[in-house]
Amino acid sequence: MNAPESVEIIKQHLIDPEICIRCNTCEETCPIDAITHDERNYVVKADVCNGCMACIAPCPTGAIDNWRHVLKAEAYGIDEQLTWDELPAQNTTAAAFPEPPGAAAEAEADDEIVASDMVRGASVPPWSAAKPYVNLYTHQSPTTATVVGNYRLTDASVESDIHHIVLDFGAMPFPVLEGQSIGILPPGTSADGKPHHARQYSIASPRDGERPRYNNVSLTVKRVTHDHGGNPTDGVCSNYLCNLKKGDTVTVIGPFGTTFLMPNHPNSHLLMICTGTGSAPMRAMTEYRRRRRLKGATGKLMLFFGARTKEELPYFGPLTNLPKDFIDTNLAFSRTAEMPKRYVQDAMRERAGDLAQLLRDDNTYLYVCGLKGMEDGVLQALQEIAGADGLDWAELWARLKREGRLHFETY
Ligand code: A2P
Would the pTM count as exceeding 0.90? Predict the structure, then answer.
């Protein structure tokens, strides 16, 4: 009887600043622009977020999945959230009020429809993927790795400077799966005097190490020399990494990623589509399959890989040396002199018959990694290829997502 008359409790969506690696995935995913950020934090606007959950699964760290019961009138504003170094504790007064009956179940049912419709890829891993470890090392308690290799992958004649960097964790456990990523904390501070946030890089080596049974991982890092607008700038972390020498140490957090993982059953087919440094997870998955080539396994590997020229394609030599009966490699070059511009989706259309056959197979798993702009083109090509073969693309697309068989990692 003593409760205030109009007490409205909301379940406020918050992002944990201690875990968040500022990768922008949530902001890109949110269909209603409820997420924003500054130099320091990613935050959720309480008055815009409708709890659709579209951002939850794509987050590689789980920092996005935090909720507090608050009085609606006292919801944390974005100005306040932007100053946080850690999440506030649950307010016990608000937590004492129950959610309206049925609200949770309704929200869950809505989530399933809304989230799966809005996200382009799967929010679940393949059914046979191994269980990944995540967030073993955080901003607050990172680990250290030693550089044991750093060499340029792209031809010396081209501007694009892509490096293969091998990091060894010594006696510190750092278990990873193909498709996962790690965070590097570059030394120094940003303009506001605070330490730089971590930068995320996909792991290019398989789970048993860059060198089998060594406790090391490799990364594929492109030296950033221009911003998105084409203006000259030195990328903080990429330049730091590309300049490292053997024996240097780096501060590492992670691993991250729970969905962009490879299936473990030997008859599964991998359809991999990438550009530039998006080849890192494809290299990891391909190398894992190569090392464990199982007798009698019927799983196929098909790769579509785009780069400006052959000289700018990372891992060109090793890739083209792989046996044809092991991997079906299709390269697309966009800036080779006197050759027409070719993108991965053009190469896919040329292989429409084989792709349609793979799309018809319930054991096919698709991975797309690289330039964000490629997503539309790849989906368009898949739709055309499926349609021309009499497949219902809308139905197939929804099923691929539901079954953890279509994964995007673009930037
Ligand atoms: P382009 O010559 O048009 O830049 P980058 O070298 O910048 O990492 O790009 C890798 C490759 O991806 C290049 O061949 C680039 O071609 C190509 N690319 C650029 N935009 C798209 C797109 N929308 N779809 C597919 N490939 C693309």
Answer: no
